[in-house]
Structure formats: C-alpha cells, structure tokens
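Hi,

I'm pasting everything inline rather than attaching a file, because the server keeps stripping attachments. The sequence lines come first, and each chain or strand is labelled.
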Amino acid sequence: MWAIVGTIPDRDFPLVTGQVSLKDNAISIQGQHIPVSRGTPALLAAAIKAGEFLGQPAPYGFLVGDSGLGVGSRRLCDYLVEHLGESAFRAITFHYVQPDVRWHNRVLSAVEQMAHRPILVADAGSMYVAKMSGRAAVYDLFTPDIGELAFLADEEAPHPLYTRGFILHEENRVPQLIARSYAHNNAARNLLVKGERDYVANQNGIQATIDYPMVEAMEAIGGTGDTLTGIVAALTTAGMEISEAAIIAARANRLAGYYVKPTAATQVREIVSYIAGALKEILAENKKGEAKKVA
Amino acid sequence: MAFLDFLKRKHPRAPAETQGLDRGILVFEHTSEVIRAETALKAEGWKIRVMGPPPEVQSGCDLVIEIPLIEELSILRTLQASGVKPKEVVPVSSPLLHPVDLFQTKDLGQYLMVRAANMKVTIDKQTLTIVNVSGGGCPDVPYLAHRMVGKPLSDAPSPREIGHTLCGYALQLAYEEARRQCGL
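And the predicted assembly:
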C-alpha cells in the first residue's frame, strides 16, 4: 500500500480517504470525481498510470478541500494524526497542504508511531513546511524546482517568497545551492531538482543530470512537476532505489512531455496519458543498457 | 467636512524606513487578510510595508504588515473602518524578511514566462492571454490557475483579489511584472 496526501482546490470538497482510480481524465475516490489538473489530482493521475504499468495497486488517497485558508488542511492533519500510527504504508507522498509547522510536526510524530517506517516523499507545501520545521532530513526525497531549491538553500527563508536576493542570483549554480541546502540540513536525503535540466542529488553532491529530451515548454506547464513526483512515488513503491527511481522518473516525465509536442499553453492532462508508454520505453532502454554492461 | 479633510491631509503618513524600537507588525489570521489590510492602508496613504514575520511569530504561510508603532491607533482605526482586524500587534526590533523583488523572464518564442520566487505565469505575446500558471505549493495555487488561465491579462482576476497564501502573493508579483512587461 502507498499513500498520497494532498488537497483539492474546492473548500466544499469533503475529507475522503481510500483507493483512487482514474477514468476519462478524472480521478475518483469514494464517489467523488475530480478532473485531472495541476496540483494533487495531477500527481495522483501520474502515480496511477505509472503504478498500473508497474503492477502496483492503486494508491491510497488522503484528500480534503482547501482553497488556501488552511481549514481543510488542518482537518486533514488532524485525521492523519489520529490514524497514521496504526496504518501500514510502504511509501507516503505529502503534497499540496497548507504549510504550518505545528500540524506538520504532529503528523510526523504519527508517522514515527507506524510499525514500519515508510519512504517519505514531500513536494509543494509539504516540502516547504518540512524545511521550515528543521526536520527535512527525516524525508527520503524532496522534488523542488529551481526556485524552490533556492528556498531550501536559504537557511533563513520560511517560504520561497522570502528567498534572499543574493541566493536567487545563484540560480544557475545548482551544485552550490544543493551543497548549501545540505550544509544547513534543509534537504531530504535525496533531491530531485526539476527544471530545464533535472538533477538527482544527495549529501555527496549531484549524482545524475537529466536533460534529454529537452522540452523547453515543460517548465511553463502547470502540473509537470506534480506528474514527476507521482511517477517517482510509484517507482519507489515498486521497490526501486530512490536515486535510480528519480532518474527514471525524470526521463519518463520528459519523454511523456516530448510525445505531446507541447507548447507553453499545453495543459498537464494531455501529458498524463503518455506516462505509461514513456516509462515502458525508459525501463526497456535501461534494461538494454544493463545487458550491454554485463556482456 | 472640508476642514476635516484638510486635517486628514496634514496627518503625517510615516515613512516606511522606520528603524529601531519604534516598529511594530500587524499579524493576521490569513494572508488574504494581510492583502486586504495592505490595500486599505495604502488607499488611505499609509506608507506601510508587507514583510515576512520574525522567527518568533512564524508558523507557516505568514505575511505581516510593518507599521510605525506610534501610529498604531490611527492605523487600527483605518483597518476597523475597512472591516479587517489584525490578530495582534507586536513590537519588533529584529530585521524582517523582505518578499522577493527579483524576476526571471524567459522568452519561449510565442510565449513569455515570468517568475517571481516559486511562481510562474506564462503569457501568449500576441493575444496577451494567460496560457499557464505553474510552480507553487500552497493549496490555492490550483484554484488561482483555474481562474486565471485562458483569460486576457487585462481582464484576469488578480491573485491579490482571490488568493489566500504566500504562493498567491508571489503569483501576484509575477502577474504584475508580466503586466508591466506587456505594457498594461
């Protein structure tokens, strides 16, 4: 079992938990249907597509409506605090949740009560608050974009809005930003930095750079970071080592985008349907590469 | 009435660059309230600044308004008249965090992408329509994107009006910069 925690941008959407399915460009959970669009629905859609291809059961969703006032996020965190300790998930991905350090720390305490520690992935608001709480290193993977990496690298910024100028000026110096994030304990054990080039890094520095295929428009398309996080969540749940999963996910996400022939006006739902095919192609290439190495 | 207006015009509007122990911050429940308060105070001529809170007040998605403490009562009256009430007023002596004021612009041929902090807005250069919103991590971002994408830059609702979070505030900065670059 693997879980995805996030919000739906509709304050009337109820708190729902259960297995999530995908049909006709909408995700379904407990009789609720949500169109695939940027945010947690895009992450779920990508995770379902990748999980299906990998033979994984559908992810278990913890979802609530929140339009930015934090009311839904608080209800969701209360629910998690109450129920996570008794649950058994191989991996949990925390996504769009209103950042609040007190709620975050309570949820993390519930995770620590689980019989088996799950793989912990954080993106979006959940990543912001993980850094702000000073407990980033508890997580196995963060998936920041370049602007968010600058925020991780700024030990004083509680949100990307406050990243100091001298650090923002270093955005073309990804290795330095990664090193600075780790120096101040503000990074997860692994980082997948998404952008024009994607970087997979850990405490020892950059482990891989992925820049093919180069699809410039992807950065402008809202939700392509969410699909990337969904794919990597599926791969780690399937048992792949985290840094390898990050590399495969980055390549597959790029390839899915490439097949759409996107412009900056493309919407993310168009990319989702290509994820399984792209993943199949990347994993087959990997297999061939490994076979060549053995030979 | 004219006499009162005269007094009002003479009323000192303190400069933003107050230093030392004479500064305070207005703390609100939600970022959207900060934005409403900022709008109300600026409309009345107060030179206040929207800033990040000091560490002892931070809880998560925070934004505060820096004020000269000596003007606290007048400022609170202005806010009361606008129906916005701060949660508390806190004196501060330590430096406050500044919201970003750097923008990155990427020319994508037919499109222009403008980024402020973690938020990006992309515009069709010919039609001046918002074609995409990306980045961010607060829960109102997908809602803001839903409301803004497909709308002309001149008519789209501004994140300031419909957003609630710091990501919404960052998107507002990118949106304003995009409007500036497009001559609006």
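Confidence is low (pLDDT under 50) at residues 1-12, 14-19 of chain B.

If the labels don't parse on your end, tell me and I'll reformat.
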